[in-house]
Design brief:
Helix content is 70%, strand content 0%. It has 462 residues and is an all-alpha fold. It has one domain. Helix 3 packs antiparallel against helix 4 and helix 8 packs antiparallel against helix 9. The radius of gyration is 23 Å and the shape is globular. This is O-antigen polymerase. Keywords: Membrane, Transmembrane, Transmembrane helix. It comes from Polynucleobacter aenigmaticus.
């Protein structure tokens, strides 16, 4: 009786941790939330430590060492960041400041994400609370957006400065996590790992509507082509899953009814993404020239305007058309960043504007603040900041999470694989190497690592 009471208290503590993480996800990518993030992360870590202690004391469990590989990679990353400060630092004052702020919050986020995952694997339905948190963040965004529609009678209202998500990428970051998580959950429902019957059909319908929320924002609020592109990649991944379910070697195990529901759901998802993609194409016709723009933007020796487009302007192509500005910036700056990596393979140790810091060493005579600050690629910027060891640790953690999910049969398998795909792609095309983006990355990897676990009671000795 007493043990049941203690287990109930632990369960409520776990629920509190998941709810706290939901609130954190709601505000994590919003501007002017640093103080609240610090409070929530510190409180979450305290609750997480209490939870682990109480859980091990009252209901002991064990975890196979091979399932801790993602956490091992994350741990090595923090050790490398610490070593870098002592051996390779190029700006000790600023690097120490980031150690005490960004990296400390990243450590807190890792612990909190892992414990949140431990709570969820014992009650998988609680993962929905994290989605509700992100939806609450989008509700705040729409609260800002809808009055503009009411006044102007126009749907298209991009504003990169005044919405609660600053710029494009912060909304795309949190929106893509929502799309991947909800879509992955839908795959789990269709696979029969979670629920059955009419309840599954209802949950799938709700999931499709939820996915439409960030897609609409990508087109009419953020005007974010990369958001639509990321959704297309996820849609194709789900389409491959549907094709395998219909035609794969184990397809004979499924009934025709379940196959048809799966195919209809995937087709509805693809149609939804394609519909918003078509709307985005109308708003930004430059999609038509994307391949040509990329091919030309890579040639940074041919077009020196990449060093300062605001003062040098954007190049005209042989066809006479001016290159699409945002494509030129993203591709040319990423190309420049890749060229700089061999010159400093250990990185400069600073997450804030690592491209600008590296370029200042290469072009010391250019005026201050004239050089680009970001490559618009999180992975490239992490290479510029902390070199190949950091990238190996992060990719190693993600790949070990993906391997564990593919080999396993946990209730959240679809969620884990979808989010791993989303993170790889998201941090390839997004300037996500600084502040909250690093915290969210570490939180998500630790969360996914825990979702792969299956807790076992310890073997008692006779």
């Amino acid at each position: 009786m007493l043990k049941n009471f203690k287990l109930a208290k632990i369960d409520y503590l776990g629920l509190s941790i998941v709810l706290l993480c939901a609130v954190l996800l709601a505000i994590w990518a919003m501007k002017h939330t640093i103080a609240l993030r610090n409070i929530l992360l510190s409180l979450g870590c305290l609750l997480s430590i209490i939870y682990i202690y109480q859980k091990k004391r009252i209901s002991p469990f064990s975890i196979a060492w091979r399932n801790l590989m993602p956490l091992l990679f994350i741990g090595i990353l923090f050790v490398w960041v610490f070593i870098h400060y002592f051996l390779f630092s190029q700006d000790e004052v600023l690097q120490l400041k980031e150690l005490k702020s960004i990296w400390f919050r990243g450590l807190e986020a890792s612990l909190l994400g892992w414990v949140c995952g431990l709570v969820i694997i014992q009650k998988p339905s609680r993962i929905n609370l994290l989605a509700y948190g992100i939806i609450a963040g989008f509700a705040a965004l729409y609260f800002q957006y809808l009055p503009k529609v009411w006044v102007t009678h126009r749907l298209f209202h991009p504003d990169y400065l005044n919405y609660i998500f600053y710029g494009k990428i912060n909304g795309v970051l949190i929106g893509t996590l929502l799309i991947a998580g909800v879509g992955g959950r839908m795959i789990d429902l269709l696979s029969g790992r979670v629920g059955s019957g009419l309840r599954v059909v209802f949950n799938i319908a709700i999931s499709v509507l939820i996915i439409a929320v960030p897609l609409y924002a990508y087109v009419f609020i953020f005007d974010a082509k990369n958001g639509i592109g990321l959704a297309v990649i996820l849609g194709l991944a789900w389409g491959l899953w549907g094709a395998n379910r219909f035609l794969g070697l184990q397809s004979h195990r499924d009934t025709w009814r379940s196959k048809l529901i799966s195919i209809a759901t995937i087709l509805a998802l693809l149609a939804l993404i394609a519909g918003f993609g078509k709307l985005q194409l109308k708003q930004s016709p430059s999609w038509v020239y994307l391949i040509e723009d990329i091919q030309e933007s890579i040639q940074i020796d041919k077009y020196p305007q990449w060093k300062s487009p605001s003062t040098l302007g954007y190049p005209s192509l042989p066809s006479g058309r001016v290159i699409t500005p945002n494509v030129f910036e993203r591709v040319s700056w990423a190309t420049a960043g890749l060229r700089l990596i061999p010159k400093n393979p250990w990185g400069n140790g600073i997450l804030q504007y690592p491209l600008e810091r590296s370029l200042m060493q290469l072009y010391p005579n250019l005026p201050p603040n004239s050089l680009p600050g970001s490559t618009h690629s999180g992975w490239i910027e992490l290479l510029l900041s902390f070199g190949f060891p950091a990238l190996i640790c992060l990719w190693g953690a993600l790949l070990s999470v993906a391997y564990g999910a593919i080999r396993g049969s946990e209730p959240s398998k679809g969620v884990v694989i979808s989010l791993v795909i989303a993170i790889f792609c998201l941090y390839t095309v997004g300037e996500l190497s600084n502040h909250h983006a690093v915290e969210i990355l570490l939180f998500t990897i630790a969360l996914l690592a825990a979702l792969n676990l299956r807790l076992k009671p310890p073997i008692s000795e006779n």
